[in-house]
Amino acid sequence: MNQDYVFLSEYPVGALPNLLILADGMGGHNAGDYASRYTVETIVESIRNSKEHAPIPIIKRAIQCANQAVLAKAQTDIDLEGMGTTVVVATVLGNELCVANVGDSRLYLSGDSLEQITKDHSYVQEMVRRGEISPEAARVHPDRNIITRAIGGGKGIAIDFFEVELRAGDQILMCSDGLTDMLEDWEIFEIINKGRDLSATLGELVDVANQHGGNDNITVIMTEAFGSEVAKC
């Protein structure tokens, strides 16, 4: 069962000139699959109908609406009880990238190096930030998949926002933890740095992650910061 869900548009959605969304659902039965899809669909609809003009208020309200919708839906069906999802939302406005995230799905910027823009909302990454364990220990920690924030996790949802200046040659990569649990950042950058078209790069990222174990759904979106090509796998 694939509990990941994505939305891509290189054309305007509401007041946003383009839109990239990735969600990784969780929950028993079909709940994770439903949570990720329902969240993405609710965010897109909210953005389309928003009367705001600035990206952060638009995206913030859309994620809040999705959180409320998931919580409400979970109360109507016992099979959906406890469902939740991570989400990463991004839009490019000229030379600026605006990103929002909840959970441990990630957005990277690849240029001269690979930089993780989002911060994981997970138990082990909170420990890393407090200096209690090393990043290397976090990768093999038995609780590494416990997330501390999720859509559907509670009425008050804390959303992180990031604004990044883009440079010529930058590439944007969004992914679920199915990729990052299997590949370290240097391995991801090594594959991206081969300089092939995006589809070939995505194919190798997923193939290598599967070769390393492929323990979860693997979803990856890539786009060139100032290009017209967008790809997903």
Name some characteristics of this structure.
233 residues; alpha+beta; Phosphatase 2c, domain 1; five-stranded antiparallel sheet; 10 strands; globular
What does this structure look like?
The protein is of the alpha+beta class. The chain is built from 7 helices and 10 strands. It has helices at 31-49, 55-74, 123-129, 135-140, 177-180, 185-192, 198-211; strands at 4-9, 19-26, 84-93, 96-102, 106-110, 114-116, 160-165, 171-175, 220-224, 230-232. The strands form 2 sheets. A 5-stranded antiparallel beta sheet has the order 1-2-3-4-7, with helices on one face. A hairpin with a 5-residue loop joins strand 9 and strand 10 (230-232). Helix 1 runs antiparallel to helix 2.
What is the topological layout?
Layout lengths: L3 E6 L9 E8 L4 H19 L5 H20 L9 E10 L2 E7 L3 E5 L3 E3 L6 H7 L5 H6 L19 E6 L5 E5 L1 H4 L4 H8 L5 H14 L8 E5 L5 E3 L1
Antiparallel strand pairs: 1-2, 2-3, 3-4, 4-7, 5-6, 5-8, 8-9, 9-10
Helix pairs in contact: 1-2
What portion of the residues fall into strands of 2 or more residues?
Answer: 15-25%
The separation of the N and C termini measures 16 Å
Note the main sheet. 5 strands, antiparallel
Q: What is the share of helical residues?
A: 25-40%
CATH architecture: 4-Layer Sandwich
Using the coordinates shown, work out and report the CATH topology: Phosphatase 2c, domain 1
Give start-end ranges of low-pLDDT stretches: none
The CATH C-level name is: Alpha Beta
What is the number of helices? 7
Q: Quote the average pLDDT.
A: 91
Instruction: Name the helix and strand elements from N-terminus to C-terminus, one letter apiece.
Output: EEHHEEEEHHEEHHHEE
Structure classification: alpha+beta
**What would you give as the CATH superfamily?**
PPM-type phosphatase domain
Q: Strands of the largest sheet, in order across it?
A: 1-2-3-4-7
Number of domains: 1
The shape, in one word, is globular
